[in-house]
Design goal:
Blueprint lengths: L3 E3 L14 H8 L5 E4 L10 H6 L3 E3 L2 H7 L2 E3 L17 E4 L7 H10 L2 E4 L5 E2 L5 E2 L3 H23 L8 E5 L3 H12 L4 E6 L2 H11 L4 E6 L2 H8 L2 E6 L14 H5 L6 E4 L20 E4 L2 E4 L9 H20 L17 E2 L1
Parallel strand pairs: 1-2, 1-4, 2-3, 4-5, 5-6, 9-10, 9-12, 10-11, 12-13, 13-15
Antiparallel strand pairs: 6-16, 7-8, 14-15
Helix pairs in contact: 1-10, 5-6, 5-10
């Protein structure tokens, strides 16, 4: 049985916690030892005593977490200061996004740790549809928050803007649909959706076209160029399982966009969708490229830490119990044949 450790997140502006007290109780009640670092849940609204009350053991430092625990449960990928603490006795369960960080790959490889990336755990439904039980919840929040941020940016910088401006959503997954719903609720009228799955777009248009002018486009370079020439708010939400994002928005396309436009590059965790994209922080979120703005914050759900922490914790608690007790067979999506287990 692997003892569970919950370190305090040290990634810049990351305010979520991986497991909330209510779910810790379920783990402890299963006979599993759980350690947490002092202050780990404070930024999400959880005090240390709430963890102690449900049976978790508090330690002072992140070094103690890695010393006493074998299953490390995080929100974001290990940071450089953590690399030296990880060894081949550890299993790390977190968002990794390996495709955008070769240094992380190299260090996890040299550590010998077993790495289970949240973002590639998937369930295939009866109809063949793929569902991501952990990533999906965070994607919904990312979509909602990304459009709220874009709306506030446009209103602050261009107070006379109209609700008739063009909105383009690249990718009609959980992020894109959530962003679209927020756009509709805020009164925006012209929403363009572009995706590889045209039938899915048809279904979305049928469901929502009475609420806004929903225009749909098959994903190709001509359609993308056409849309970007008029788009004021763009939500970039393409996700390729465990792979680096395609840089769909070239400099040539960026050059054609209207001055003042904003791109919310929600795919930045996987490298981003523009040629200018690089990771930014909540403190300095915007990359300026000529007349446009590119928002490249990788942990958007952290801007709603309490809600995001609850959803994340609820979606991983049973997996944590299974991994700790070597009962992965209870959840086929955790088995090696169904997940790319990064055991280097």
């Amino acid at each position: 049985m692997l003892s569970v450790g919950i370190p305090k997140e040290i990634k810049v502006c990351e305010n979520r916690v991986s497991l909330i007290p209510e779910d810790i109780k379920k783990i402890v009640d299963s006979g599993i030892l759980v350690y947490f670092q002092k202050g780990t849940g404070v930024n999400s609204g959880y005090n240390d005593y709430e963890y102690i009350e449900v049976g978790a053991i508090m330690v002072d430092t992140i070094e103690d977490i890695y010393k006493f625990s074998k299953l490390i449960v995080k929100v974001k990928e290990p940071q450089e200061s953590e690399y030296k603490l990880i060894n081949n006795t550890h299993t790390i369960f977190t968002f990794f996004h390996f495709a955008s960080d070769q240094l992380l790959v190299d260090n996890m490889k040299s550590s010998g740790a077993s790495c289970y990336p949240y973002e590639i755990i998937k369930i295939k439904k009866e109809g063949g549809e793929i569902y991501y039980p952990i990533l999906s919840n965070m994607s919904v929040i990312a979509g909602e928050q990304s459009f709220n941020v874009a709306d506030l940016f446009i209103k602050s910088n261009y107070p006379n803007h109209s609700l008739d401006i063009d909105i383009t959503i690249i990718g009609a997954g959980n992020v894109g649909i959530s962003a679209m719903k927020i756009a509709i609720s805020l009164g925006y009228k012209n929403i363009n959706l572009i995706d590889n799955n045209y039938q899915k777009l048809l279904n979305i248009k049928l469901e929502y076209d009475n609420l806004a002018n929903i225009s749909i486009y098959n994903m190709d370079s001509d359609n993308l160029k056409f849309l970007m020439k008029k788009s004021i708010i763009t939500i970039g939400s393409i996700y390729n399982t465990g792979m680096k994002a395609d840089r769909l928005l070239t400099n040539e396309i960026l050059d054609s966009m209207p001055d003042g436009a904003i791109i919310m590059d929600v795919a930045i965790d996987q490298g981003g969708i523009t040629e200018q994209s690089k990771i930014t922080s909540i403190d300095e979120p915007i990359i300026k490229y000529k007349g446009i703005n590119i928002y490249c914050v990788p942990n958007i759900p952290s801007t709603a830490p309490r809600k995001a922490s609850i959803l994340l914790s609820n979606s991983i608690v049973d997996y944590v119990k299974a991994l700790s007790t070597n009962n992965q067979h209870l959840y086929p999506e955790l088995l090696k044949e169904n997940i790319h287990l990064w055991t280097f």
